[in-house]
Every structure is written in C-alpha cells, then in structure tokens.
Amino acid sequence: MNKKTKGAIAAAAGGVLLLGGVGSLAYWSSSTVIGGEEISSGTLKIGDCGNGVWTENGVVLDDVTAFLLVPGETLTYACDAAITATGDHLTGTITADTAGITGNAELLAAIAATTTVTLGGGVLAEITDANDGDTVQVAVELEFDADTELEVAQGEKIQLAALELVLQQTAPH
Amino acid sequence: MNPIRWGILTVAALAALAFMTVQQSAALWRDSTQITDTTITSGTLSLLVGNAGGQSKSHSMPDFGGSNLYPGAVIQRPLTVKNAGDIAMRYRLQSVAQAQANGKNDVPLRLQTWIVADAPACPTSGTPPGIGGYAGALAAAQWPPAPGWERLAPDATAVWCLRVTVGASADTNQASVITLNYLANS
Q1: Hey, are the CB atoms on A153 and B38 less than 8 Å from each other?
Q2: Which candidate in B23, B39, B41, B42 is best for mutational testing of the A interface (most A CBs within 10 A)?
Q3: Which residues of A touch B35 (CB under 8 A)?
Q4: Of residues B89 and B2, which shows the higher confidence score?
Q5: Computed over its alpha carbons, how large is the radius of gyration of chain A?
Q6: Which long-range CB contacts under 8 A does A9-18 form with residues at least 24 apart?
Q7: pLDDT of B142-182, one tens digit each?
Q8: Is residue B175 within 8 Å of B66, Cβ to Cβ?
Q9: Mean pLDDT across B7-18
Q10: Which residues, at least 6 apart from A96, have a Cβ–Cβ distance to it below 8 Å?
Q11: Backbone angles phi and psi of B110, in degrees to 5
Q12: Can you give A69-135 as a three-state secondary structure string?
C-alpha cells in the first residue's frame, strides 16, 4: 500500500471517529424550567459632595487657598453626600482617596488623610442597604505631620483636584 | 506525561486560580466623587537676627565684646530679631554657648536681657526701659524658660537688649567667645 492510500484510510478512520462523537449528542435528553422569576442586581452610588466647608481647629475658612498650613495643624473638609445602596447583603465603606493628589513631594509626604462618616451624629463605619436614601456627613481630615522638622515642606503646595471620595463595596459576608 | 510536566501544569493552574480570585475581589462595586478642587499651601518659618539695618540667619556681633575688661565690667548691645516668614512665629533664646578663645580660660559671665522698643532704647550702659527677661549665669541662659515662647507676627521685629557682665571671680588673661542660639517654632 502506498503512502496516499494509507493517508486516505487514516482520514476515513478520523471521519468515523468524528461521526461517533457527533452521534453522542443525540442521546436522550429532557429539560424543565426551574425559574420564572427575575433576578435583580443592587445599586451602590455616592452623590456629589462638592458643597463642603473647610475648617481648621473648628474655625471656618472662607478661602482655604489663603490659609498657610503648619506642622501639627489639621484641615477638615466637611460635606454631605447622598447614598444609594441596595442589596440584601451589600456593605461598603467611604474613604478619601488621596492617591491622585499632586504637588510638592515633601508636603505630600507630610500630609495624612483620614475619613469619618457620620449619620445623625453617630459614626457610620459601614454603609449597608439600610442607608439607601440617607444623606451622610463626611469629614476628610488632612493632618500636617507634627514631627516635620527643621525647614522641611515649607512654602509648598498640593493640588487637591484629584482628591476623591470613594464608596467601595466590601466583600459579601 | 512525566511528573515534572504534571507539576508545572498544577502550579500554573493554581497560579491562574489565585490570580482570578484577586481580580474578583478587586472588581467589587466602586463609586467616587470629586470633593474639592483647591490648593493647600504650607507656611514658611524664618527667624533672622541682626541689627536695625538688616538681619540674617547667622549674625556676628563684634561690638558685643571687648578687651582688657575687669570684674564688674558691662557690655550692652541691641539685637534685632525678625520674623521673616509668612506665619505667626514662636521663639525663644534657647541657649548660650561659651567657648574658650585662644586657649585661654573661660571668663565668668552673667547675662541679662530686655525686650525694648527699638535699638536706641538699648544704650551701652544703664538699665534699658523695657521688659526684663533673663538674668543669671550666661551658660544657663534660656528665655522665656521652656515651654514658654515669645511671639512675633510675620514681618515683625523685636529688639533684645543684651547685657553681659564680667563676673567678680574673673582672673587675668582670660577670654571667651559666646554664641546665642534662638529657636523658632510655628
């Protein structure tokens, strides 16, 4: 038998195997509807919080850009944000994301941000479905490290255009 | 397939699974809002010392000294302290260092300070019309005593009247160099 003949036989055998495989899909099968109900996803949104007020040590600053910050001082930005949160087991947290802030390196390194969320005067550590429709009070504190020594970070600037308030879902329990 | 290949495939599968797990946990819902678009500026703290005509970070006072002094001799000179920064400043005379000069023994010295209205209010002798401050051994001088501070607004100056008196126990052929250190804080 020459090589062409052997090749033809091999191709035919492959075809038989393929047909056998196709044939296996034709076994009996049956199905039934198990649902009929809709499944809906929840929601998680934080509203605009750009209407806030800057304070330092409880004193309102009409123009924060004119304030000269020194080590040990803390600037606080307070605003109200509407929450949309639906989901039976939904949980989330609100934090200020400072990653995108730009400016002079020494001052950037000396500033630490903390975020406090309150509702009705009480601290709200976690956003849940129960907070859907609530307006929470958010305070972002920017603290200038009191241990900043000598003449470090003097006369420097940081731009807060990229400072964001983030509502992040936490892993379902 | 040999054991080594199975091992590689297993590790690869686990790595892929782990990667997918991490990706999933990072893919939870997230919403954000910009909260402000402003700039924050830090202040500048700068304390300078000198005379009425000008100040610098380090100032030499060659006229605040003398030769052939004797026990009880007095040297009195004004020193201008300036807040050259843009924030309110707290400051004090933090310390005074006394060093031997030309290998000679230290002169026993006493220091007195006043804060006066201006340089002319600090004559070369006599008690100046001002607010009294430190009075005691030069080497232990500090005024106001910590944690106290004097205060100066931006661009403001204060004139200190400094008096050094040679101690009664001063011996002959002694010499000293003194350095006053001012400390400023925001």
Answers
A1: no
A2: B42
A3: 49-50, 52, 77, 79, 96, 138, 140, 163-165
A4: B89
A5: 31
A6: none
A7: 999 999 999 999 999 999 999 999 999 888 888 889 999 99
A8: no
A9: 43
A10: A113, A114, A115, A140, A163, A164, A165, A166, B35
A11: -120, 140
A12: ECCCCEEEEEEEEEEEEECCCCEEEEEEECCCCEECHHHHHHEEEEEEEEECCEECCCEEHHHCCCE
Question: Residue A13: how many CA atoms within 13 Å on its side-chain side?
Answer: 6
Q: Tell me the C-alpha distance between A53 and A109, whole Å.
A: 24
For residue A134, give Cα distances in angstroms to A43, A97, A103, A129.
Answer: 14, 22, 35, 10
- What pLDDT score was predicted for residue B53? 87
CA angle B111, B114, B119 (to 5 degrees): 110
Residue A32 is encoded by which pair of tokens? 């039934």
How far, in Å, CA of A65 to CA of B112, rounded?
A: 43
Beta bridge partners of A123: A118
Q: Specify the residue for token string 């200038």.
A: A144
Q: What is the mean pLDDT of residues B43-54?
A: 93
Q: Distance between CA atoms of B75 and B67, rounded to whole angstroms?
A: 11
Out of B25, B32, B42, whose CB is closest to A153?
A: B42
Judging contacts by C-beta atoms under 8 Å, the chain A residues touching residue B32 are 46, 97, 164-167
Q: pLDDT band for A26, please (50, 70, 90 cuts).
A: confident
The dihedral formed by the CA atoms of A64, A70, A73 and A74, expressed in degrees to the nearest 10: 40
Phi and psi (nearest 5°) for A8?
-65, -40
What is the separation, in whole angstroms, between the first and last Cα of chain A?
69
* DSSP β-ladder status, A122-123 and A74-86: unpaired
Examine the pLDDT at B40 and tell me if it is beyond 60: yes
pLDDT, one tens digit per residue, over A100-132 is 999 999 999 999 999 999 999 999 999 999 999
Kindly report the backbone phi and psi dihedral angles of residue B12, in degrees, each rounded to the nearest multiple of 5, phi listed first: -60, -40
Residues, chain B: 186
